[in-house]
Amino acid sequence: MRKVHFEELGTMPYQEVWDYQEKLFGENVAIKLAKRKAEVAGEEYLGPETEDYLLYVEHPHVYTLGKSGHMENLLVDEKGLEEIKATFVPINRGGDITYHGYGQLVAYPIFDLEYYFTDIHKFLRYLEEAIILALKDYGIASGRIDGLTGVWIEPDNLDRARKICAMGIRCSRWITMHGLALNVNTDLNYFKHIVPCGIDDKAVTSLQAELGREVSMDEVKERVKARMAELFSIEFDAVGV
Question: Residues of the chain with pLDDT > 90: what percent?
Answer without folding.
Answer: 87
